[in-house]
Specification:
16 helices; alpha/beta; single chain; 3-stranded antiparallel β-sheet; D-Maltodextrin-Binding Protein, domain 2; 422 residues
Length: 422
């Protein structure tokens, strides 16, 4: 008992000394952020930093904004040069299964207090699991969402295809999905939906479509190997190849999700496979129709949607003062009962903390609430599986080979041999 008390007192003294040190000394830290909602907007982020500096005036935070085209190369270059930022904002597939697994990140277990763990677990155990590897927490999460697809509501209405949707649950079966595509084609629609495979951008959509058609699992439960060579996985990919061959879907090896979203917004395509709250905000205003979010079709009508989790990690730059300052920034923007919901609101996604509740009612982003219906469909967060960056490249290469006429089973086996760690 005395030993436990002594350890607790020591921990309190250490935290107190750290707080005093941060209050008395000037510390400069850097943060790099991928384009996560309005966190790509300098005015928004400057406002968040200003709020932090009201509490910690001696900690200066400089920010650099990354994109998904060159951001990974910038981080890789910084790692090689020893010039990584203190804080980086992104998801577990980068912070945990990539840089964390390579020993580049700080263990953030001290941020995962009992209170935080309980608050986050109440929303999703999958979030907690995704942020750790081998007992170490390399990410402290801020927000989450599910990725969906979307349809042109008026086009479906005109084709008498709305009857194939369950509009109460926003779900549909694989059989009804195929019937809806036939109805659209028969009504004269040139492009029902486009299966893009020109790169990894938006690949969560093509994966979710192929998986859900026959309830395949993308990886094993332990997240140690990829499993789309299962009977259900091959059957789903075969169905996509067949639908493309029949003209019920279009395959385009020259575009990625950003291109597809633009084609959806301008009415060229009548579905998008890359929809979520952020893309709805970015593209809905361009559309001359009603974009209507839907879950991906599944054989049993119960979808498992890919999720997005975004939060913060700290690169280990071997500077304890900067690490302590970075942790204070992360705690402030993620945990503070006033700032925390504002930080999530800026992303356009949903809080990982149950205590933050509904952050959109009565705001200019109230339309985001449309996506809350999909949260119960959040499936396994499998993108922490080893070899993830390789898998992403191999996935769109697989789709290109299949839609070029390749034998589905043989091409899937090639994919599996290339992605599973030997």
């Amino acid at each position: 008992m005395k030993k436990t008390l002594a350890l607790l007192l020591a921990a309190v003294m250490l935290l107190s000394l750290s707080a005093v040190s941060l209050a008395e000394e000037k510390v400069a830290i850097t943060m790099w952020t991928y384009p996560i909602g309005a966190w790509k907007d300098a005015d928004t982020v400057n406002g968040i930093v200003a709020a932090f500096n009201e509490k910690y005036p001696n900690i200066s935070v400089s920010v650099e904004y990354l994109d998904y085209q060159s951001g990974d190369d910038q981080v890789t270059g910084a790692i090689e040069a020893g010039t990584t930022p203190d804080i980086i904002m992104e998801g577990p597939e980068r912070l945990v299964s990539n840089w964390g697994a390579k020993g580049k990140m700080v263990d953030l277990a001290d941020l995962w207090t009992e209170e935080a763990l309980k608050d986050i677990s109440a929303v999703s155990e999958a979030v907690v699991a995704a942020c750790q590897l081998d007992g170490k927490y390399y990410e402290y999460p801020l927000c989450m969402t599910t990725h969906t697809m979307a349809i042109n509501y008026e086009a479906f209405e005109k084709a008498d295809a709305l009857k194939y949707l369950d509009q109460d649950t926003r779900t549909w079966t694989t059989e009804n999905f195929e019937l809806a595509m036939k109805a659209l084609k028969d009504s004269g629609v040139a492009h029902t939906g486009i299966v893009y495979c020109g790169g990894q951008g938006g690949d969560q959509g093509t994966r979710a479509l192929a998986m859900n058609l026959y309830s395949a699992s993308f990886t094993n439960p332990e997240h140690t190997e990829y499993t789309m060579n299962s009977e259900a996985g091959i059957k789903g990919l075969q169905k996509l190849q067949d639908m493309v061959n029949e003209g019920l879907l279009t395959a385009d090896p020259g575009i990625v999700a950003g291109d597809e979203l633009q084609l959806f917004a301008n009415g060229t395509a009548n579905m998008s496979l890359a929809w979520n709250a952020a893309n709805a905000a970015n593209y809905a205003s361009q559309a001359q129709f009603t974009p209507y979010a839907m879950a991906f079709p599944s054989d049993d009508g119960v979808p498992e949607l890919a999720g997005g989790i975004w939060g913060f990690g700290i690169f280990n730059n071997n500077d304890e003062k900067r690490i302590a300052a970075a942790k204070e920034f992360i705690k402030f923007v993620s945990d503070d009962p006033v700032q925390g919901p504002k930080s999530v609101f800026a992303t356009g996604f949903f809080p990982v903390r149950a205590s933050f509740g509904d952050i959109y009612t009565g705001t200019e982003k109230e339309a985001n609430k449309e996506f809350s219906v999909f949260m119960p469909y959040l499936g396994d967060y499998y993108s922490v599986t080893p070899n993830w960056p390789v898998q992403r490249t191999e996935w769109w290469n697989l789709l290109q080979r299949i839609f070029a006429g390749g034998d589905v089973k043989a091409e899937v086996e090639t994919y599996i041999n290339n992605v599973n760690v030997k």
